[in-house]
Design a protein that fits this description.
binds cytidine-5'-monophosphate; 15 helices; 418 residues; Rossmann fold; 21 strands; alpha/beta; 22% strand
């Protein structure tokens, strides 16, 4: 496993000393830490202490030309897996919300394309001030993760909310976010797609159209009820994101999920299996289709125009089901069949056997099989087997984002070899 790295931004407040304990805990977990101290943080704690604990250079002032020559603020903001602001003062939160970049810490925060976690610490009145709450709402809407401060006695003899969360809590949250691995990188708007540098290290998907389905479908029973399943859409969204990152034009047909649209992806939202099929057919031709959606096998045969009522007699529910179209199988037989057609097989037992059978039955080129008997559905990690004409590959358990990247690399290799 490659080493997990965070960039820790320490801002000025009495809680800054607790950031030293945080560094110690993170190092203990095997996480590398590089620290940036604002000018006011340095009034409370010294760069020397952080240097000793991080075993790395500590960064302070953007206008130190020597530092900019050694490592620029852009590089500093990109080389970590996660940026953590702890403690985050009301001041730095306000600057982040406004996009102000007037020192190294805030410049890094504005330049980064990495996920950001904020651990606030401030006086209770500053915490409850409308301006601070407004700024926090802005950061949340931007996709920044914010920890709840603790409640208790303040350094200034007041009592209330605003204490820095305990270093152990922050360390645990950092580890959780790093292990999930598929955090949104929310801070850039969609217009930045033109500045995503293509990854030129291997085969790419430039010039290819990749079609992905993701999420569940909702099949209405009556005006208030529907048939659904536990799919979160995360694996499909991660694949769409990875394909866009590899340079493809990506169409993502998504069932009802609450996930942000990955950068560079064209998204079509649908509710039902039949709508999903229509959107998929409308998006053809495609070089690759990856059908990740957990499409409902059945829908209500007739959608009731009014809410169905029980009559109290204990009679069976007046619910007849009809089979939904199989989108994957339909594409396999389609006049405009994508050159590489990939299905998913979510199974709770004899996973690989079912996947081998499914590949043949549905006419897919590859099947990605996963065991959903645990908490895969809705979870952040996945353990899959790739079934191709050449045989079965067992991939180790990894974050869904890593499954996505590896699958996209395999697809690019396959298309390059044709
Ligand atoms: O038959 P099963 O639902 O297990 O097959 C799973 C695969 O088939 C997935 O790739 C899923 O997206 C696709 N599928 C589909 N349309 C359906 C049912 C499944 O495209 N109606």
């Amino acid at each position: 496993m490659t080493q997990r790295r965070i960039l820790l931004i320490v801002t000025g407040g009495i809680a800054a000393y607790k950031a030293l304990e945080l560094v110690r805990l993170l190092r203990h977990k095997g996480i590398a830490v590089r620290a940036v101290l604002t000018r006011s943080a340095q009034e409370f704690v010294t760069p020397l202490s952080f240097g000793v604990l991080t075993e790395d250079h500590v960064y302070g002032d953007m206008f130190d030309l020597k530092e900019e020559r050694e490592i620029g603020h852009i590089q500093l903001s990109r080389e970590a897996d996660l940026i953590v602001v702890a403690p985050a003062t009301a001041n730095v939160i306000a600057k982040m919300a406004a996009g102000i970049a007037d020192d190294l810490a805030t410049t890094v925060l504005l330049a980064t394309d990495k996920p950001v976690l904020v651990a606030p610490a401030m006086n209770v009145r500053m915490w409850h001030h409308k301006a601070t709450q407004r700024n926090l709402a802005t950061l949340r809407a931007d996709g920044i993760a914010i920890m709840e401060p603790g409640v208790g006695a303040m350094a200034c003899n007041e009592w209330g909310k605003g204490r820095l969360p305990e270093p152990a809590e922050i360390a645990a949250e950092i580890e959780r976010l790093l292990d999930e691995g598929d955090l949104p990188r929310p801070l850039l708007t969609d217009t930045t797609r033109t500045i995503i540098a293509p990854d030129l290290s291997g085969p790419t998907l430039h010039g290819r159209h990749v079609l992905v389905t993701a999420g569940p479908t909702h099949e209405p029973i009556d005006p208030v009820r529907y048939i659904a399943n536990r799919s979160s859409g995360r694996q499909g969204f991660a694949i769409a994101a990875a394909a866009a990152q590899a340079g493809a034009k990506v169409t993502l047909v998504a069932g009802p999920v609450s996930l942000p649209t990955p950068r560079g992806v064209d998204r079509i939202d649908v509710e039902t299996a039949r709508e999903m099929l229509a959107a998929v057919e409308g998006a053809l031709p495609a070089d690759v289709a990856i059908m990740v959606a957990a499409v409902a096998d059945w829908r209500a045969a007739d959608e009731a125009p009014q809410k169905l009522k029980k009559d109290g007699s204990g009679a069976p529910a007046p619910l007849a089901l009809a089979e939904n179209p199989d989108i994957l199988a339909t594409l396999a037989r389609h006049a405009r069949r994508p050159g590489l057609l990939i299905g998913f097989a979510a199974e709770t037992e004899t996973v690989v056997d079912h996947a081998l059978a499914k590949r043949a039955r549905k006419g897919a080129d590859w099947i990605v099989a996963n065991d959903v008997s645990g908490d895969v559905m809705g979870g952040a990690r996945n353990s899959v087997h790739l079934v191709t004409a050449a045989g079965v590959e067992d991939w180790p358990d990894m974050p869904k984002s890593a499954v996505a990247t590896r699958l996209v690399e395999r697809i690019a290799d396959e298309l390059a070899g044709r």
